[in-house]
């Protein structure tokens, strides 16, 4: 696809109100055009049915939308697992905010058919020191791996994360909440004995108490587990 044509198409879809809204959700991201996700998905699907490899080889990252579109195409493309994993590996360094990270993860639905391979693929990212590599691994876990056979090894990964970034801590808290709503007994055992920092731990408790899927009586117990600041 001609990159100038694509850029012109994106500029023609700009919604200024949506741009302001999106910018407010992603502080520090200054290259948002303001193209709504359904329009981007439509373009992504069209590219994925055409010469998507050439597109990815020449694609620009001048705007939030251009980067997000590349992630969408990787998710939509009809490609064998080894090549798709390589495409994902090449894309991850382009992730520079939580929104692109989370949207990218949501689009990798092929994971449902290749869980073991993707689980192994994620391990280096969960052990990384890079903010969005870690968040990518955690959000992939939330999206595709909240089930009993993956819980204990994932909890070990959470214990080992050494990153003071807000978006990593919030992702881990969100993950623990997801685990609690699906597998409360296993998650409660972890909450009673973990190596999480106080912020992440307390934020996880807060999110659990805010969940509509958790029994009110359980929420009372959860509130009593909060760590007091030293």
Description:
Helix 5 packs antiparallel against helix 6 (81-91), helix 11 (166-182) packs across helix 13 (198-210) and helix 13 packs antiparallel against helix 14. The protein is globular and about 55 Å long. The protein has 230 residues and is mainly alpha-helical. It has 14 helices and no strands. The protein has two domains: 1-107, no CATH class; 109-230, Alpha Horseshoe (Leucine-rich Repeat Variant).
Which keywords apply here?
single chain; 230 residues; mainly alpha; Leucine-rich Repeat Variant; 2 domains; 14 helices; 69% helix; globular
How much helical structure, as a percent, in the residues? Answer: 55-70%
Sequence of secondary-structure elements? HHHHHHHHHHHHHH
Mean pLDDT, to the nearest integer, reads 95
Shape type: globular
Task: Tell me the domain tally.
Answer: 2
CATH architecture of the largest domain: Alpha Horseshoe
State the separation between the terminal residues, measured CA to CA: 57 Å
Low-confidence stretches: none
Radius of gyration: 19 Å
DSSP summary: helix tally: 14
Protein structure class: mainly alpha
Write down how many β-strands occur, each being a DSSP E stretch of 2 or more residues.
Answer: 0
Question: Concise description?
Answer:
This protein has 230 residues and is mainly α. The chain has 14 helices and no strands.
Helix and strand layout, with pairings?
Elements: H1 3-12, H2 16-25, H3 37-48, H4 52-58, H5 64-76, H6 81-91, H7 98-107, H8 115-126, H9 131-144, H10 148-160, H11 166-182, H12 184-192, H13 198-210, H14 216-223
Helix pairs in contact: 3-5, 5-6, 5-7, 7-9, 8-9, 9-11, 11-12, 11-13, 13-14
């Amino acid at each position: 696809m001609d990159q100038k044509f694509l850029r012109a198409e994106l500029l023609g879809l700009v919604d200024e109100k949506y741009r302001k809204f999106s910018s407010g959700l992603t502080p520090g991201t200054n290259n948002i055009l303001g193209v709504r996700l359904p329009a981007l998905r439509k373009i992504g699907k069209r590219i994925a049915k055409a010469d998507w490899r050439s597109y990815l080889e020449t694609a620009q990252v001048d705007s939030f939308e251009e980067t997000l579109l590349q992630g969408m195409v990787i998710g939509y493309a009809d490609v064998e697992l080894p090549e798709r994993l390589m495409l994902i590996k090449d894309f991850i360094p382009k992730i520079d905010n939580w929104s692109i990270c989370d949207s990218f993860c949501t689009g990798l639905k092929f994971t449902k058919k290749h869980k073991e391979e993707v689980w192994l693929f994620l391990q280096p990212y969960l052990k990384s020191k890079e903010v969005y590599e870690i968040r990518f691994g955690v959000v992939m876990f939330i999206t595709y791996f909240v089930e009993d056979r993956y819980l204990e090894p994932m909890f070990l990964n959470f214990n080992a994360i050494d990153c003071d970034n807000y978006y990593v801590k919030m992702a881990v808290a969100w993950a623990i909440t997801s685990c609690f709503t699906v597998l409360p007994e296993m998650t409660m055992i972890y909450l009673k004995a973990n190596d999480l920092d106080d912020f992440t731990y307390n934020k996880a408790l807060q999110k659990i108490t805010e969940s509509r899927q958790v029994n009110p009586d359980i929420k009372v117990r959860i509130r009593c587990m909060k760590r007091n600041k030293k």
